[in-house]
Amino acid sequence: MSDDRSELRTAAEKLHEAREGTDHADAAERLETYAEQVETMADADRGPDHGRLARLEHNLHDVQSDLDADATEAVKSALEHAQAYRSTVEGV
Fold first, then answer.
1. What is the predicted pLDDT for the residue at 3?
2. Which of 3, 20, 33, 38 is the most exposed place for a label (fewest CB within 10 A)?
3. Which InterPro entries does the UniProt entry name for this protein (predicted)?
4. Where does the pLDDT of residue 92 fall: very low under 50, low under 70, confident under 90, or very high at 90 and above?
5. Is residue 16 part of a domain?
C-alpha cells in the first residue's frame, strides 16, 4: 500500500482555490473547513480511512451547488485528487 499523501495536499490546495473563487460566504467557510480537514489528513501520522474520505467526497459534492463554474471546477479537481488517494487505501 502506498501512503503518498501528495494527492491530499493537492486536494487541499484546490479547495483553497475554490474558497478564494467564491463570493458565497457559507460555501467559502465550508470550503475552508474542508481544506483544513484535508491538510490534517495529509499530515497525520496515519492516513484517513475509506469512511472519512467518503464523507469528505459527499460534503464536496454537496457544496458544489452553491458555487459558480470556476469554484466548481476547483472542487471537482479536489475530488479527483481525493479519489486518487482513496484508490490507494486498503480495505473496502
1. 64
2. 3
3. DUF7553
4. low
5. yes
Please check whether residue 18 lies inside any domain of the structure: yes
Range of the domain at 61: 6-86
pLDDT in tens, 24-71: 999 999 999 999 999 999 999 998 999 999 999 999 999 999 999 999
75 found inside a domain: yes
Closest CA to 34 of 66, 2, 3: 66
Confidence (pLDDT) at 71: 96
Nearest to 51 by CA among 92, 12, 5: 92
CB 8, CB 86: distance < 8 Å: no
Q: How far apart are CA 59 and CA 55, in angstroms?
A: 6
